[in-house]
């Protein structure tokens, strides 16, 4: 009978992947100095539409209303749907987080719910991004109580999304360092918080990555979080052709029994 031998390299080439994420929409919201009657409180932001996208990503930065006040993000919803937490980190009264939602659907309010041993926030910044061409879920994440977060991305050409917050910077809003090349929005002296949300639409080859930010002054209690979102796998046409040619050249051997 005939036995066909297919090399592993040929199969790999035929199914090599090549895809890139597209950014459909972005928006930035800020607010400040809200005091609430209970240690759980919400902010509502309206007017964002992710109905034509397959992923919604939200980055937050917030500061508790006193030096000992610690806040955390309990939940974020979009049009009533709950987002999933990708990463969250505190540094004293500062908190930064990233949440996401696959297949977000029709437009609606974004509601961010905080809680903690405080009764309000001095300042909040929220960056929102709608994406297409993404795989479900989240890739690698990083966080650090500083102006940068380092981690290893898992996929080529992924999108890295990052949020930074610190105590107010009198010198002005912080800026994103390369390779974070697009700032969704930034703020300074919002209440007494400063921060920024930014992204890198193509992080290049998988491997070490640092999401870093620069402050004009020396604000207290900085914290940075970052997350990788990766593309839906798509066959590479050139790789498929190469795989087919390799397959056609496979030696067919006859074995007699």
Bulk shape = globular
Report how far the terminal alpha carbons are from each other. 8 Å
Helix proportion of residues, in percent? under 10%
- Overall radius of gyration: 23 Å
Q: Poorly predicted ranges (pLDDT <50, ≥5 residues)? A: 1-17, 250-257
Order of helices and strands: EHEEEEEEEEEEEEEEEEEHE
Secondary structure tally: strands: 19
Can you summarize the main beta sheet?
5 strands, antiparallel
Number of helices: 2
Structural class: mainly beta
Strand proportion:
over 45%
The whole-number mean of residue pLDDT values reads: 83
Indicate the topology:
Elements: E1 2-4, H1 8-14, E2 22-35, E3 40-48, E4 55-64, E5 71-78, E6 81-82, E7 84-91, E8 94-102, E9 108-116, E10 120-132, E11 141-144, E12 148-152, E13 159-167, E14 175-176, E15 182-190, E16 193-200, E17 208-214, E18 223-229, H2 237-248, E19 252-254
Antiparallel strand pairs: 1-19, 2-10, 3-9, 4-8, 4-10, 5-6, 5-9, 7-8, 11-18, 12-17, 13-16, 13-18, 14-17, 15-16
């Amino acid at each position: 009978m005939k036995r066909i031998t297919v090399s592993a390299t040929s199969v790999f080439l035929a199914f090599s992947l090549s895809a890139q994420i597209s950014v459909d929409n972005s928006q930035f919201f800020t607010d400040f100095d809200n005091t609430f009657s209970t240690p759980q409180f919400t902010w509502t932001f309206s007017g964002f539409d992710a109905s034509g996208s397959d992923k919604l990503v939200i980055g937050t930065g917030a500061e508790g209303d006193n030096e000992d006040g610690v806040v955390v993000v309990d939940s974020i919803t979009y049009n009533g749907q709950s987002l999933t937490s990708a990463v969250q980190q505190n540094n004293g009264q500062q908190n930064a987080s990233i949440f996401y939602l696959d297949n977000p659907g029709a437009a609606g309010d974004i509601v961010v719910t905080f809680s903690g041993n405080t009764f309000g926030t001095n300042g909040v910044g929220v960056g929102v991004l709608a994406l297409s061409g993404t795989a479900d879920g989240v890739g690698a994440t990083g966080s650090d109580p500083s102006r940068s977060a380092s981690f290893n991305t898992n996929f080529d050409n992924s999108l890295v999304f990052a949020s930074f917050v610190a105590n107010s910077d009198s010198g002005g809003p912080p800026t994103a360092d390369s390779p974070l090349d697009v700032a969704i929005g930034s703020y300074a002296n919002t209440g007494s918080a400063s921060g920024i949300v930014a992204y890198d639409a193509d992080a290049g080859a998988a491997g070490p990555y640092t999401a870093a930010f620069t402050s004009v002054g020396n604000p207290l209690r900085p914290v940075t979080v970052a997350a990788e979102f990766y593309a839906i796998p798509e066959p590479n046409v050139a790789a498929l052709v190469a795989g087919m040619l390799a397959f056609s050249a496979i030696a067919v051997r006859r074995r007699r029994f």
